[in-house]
């Protein structure tokens, strides 16, 4: 079987989104747990790909769905487009998660007559790894740099934004890195928690407008 590539992944995600949007699924009827819906869609898409392509399946060690491609898959409802992801370090808010995201945004409709569910895929979006940082954090740091800010300004901003588990040494290192290697603007909203909470409203707004956010599929 041919090896899965990012280009193929996007193309197949488009086809899958079209097919799934017209599929009637009995097992999801009445299900209100978003995690169960997400698991269903993730498994179904992976199994769909496995019949056609060769690729490494993600594990708990790798933490992402397509480790060879450095891509993680996310499924979220349009009612509240967000999900969680493992926290690694505070720098993820500034330089991104370290991998790309393939995001399926669905609207769930139950048919009481047929007792089936349809997951209408409204948006399927691919976010490049270097655009997965936090929007407000990267905008703020970029603005400071644009106005001749120094290391102390950057550190003050990071502490003001409550960047998690950030001590003076870590803040020093991050500020030095931002000075020498300014981050690109990220398009996620990343909320502090034991796990990062990723919110996708801005990603949906900017999909297809360039800046590393590809619109793979959008419902007509």
Structural write-up:
The structure is a single chain. This protein is of the alpha+beta class. The chain folds into 2 domains: about 130 residues, PvuII Endonuclease, Chain A (3-Layer(aba) Sandwich); about 45 residues, no CATH class. About 35% of the residues lie in helices and about 20% in strands. It is built from 7 helices and 7 strands, in the order H-H-E-E-H-E-E-H-H-H-E-E-H-E. The strands form 2 sheets. Strands 1-3-4-7 form a 4-stranded mixed sheet.
What is this structure, in a nutshell?
The protein is of the alpha+beta class.
Calculate the mean pLDDT score and round it.
93
Q: According to CATH, what is the topology of the largest domain?
A: PvuII Endonuclease, Chain A
CA distance, first residue to last residue: 33 Å
The SSE order reads HHEEHEEHHHEEHE
CATH class of the largest domain: Alpha Beta
The total count of helices amounts to 7
Strand order of the largest sheet: 1-3-4-7
Task: Name some characteristics of this structure.
three-stranded antiparallel beta sheet; 220 residues; four-stranded mixed beta sheet; 22% strand; PvuII Endonuclease, Chain A; alpha+beta; elongated; single chain; 7 helices
Topology overview:
Blueprint: H1 6-20, H2 34-50, E1 71-77, E2 82-85, H3 92-95, E3 100-111, E4 116-127, H4 135-146, H5 151-160, H6 168-180, E5 189-191, E6 196-199, H7 201-206, E7 213-218
Helix pairs in contact: 4-5, 5-6
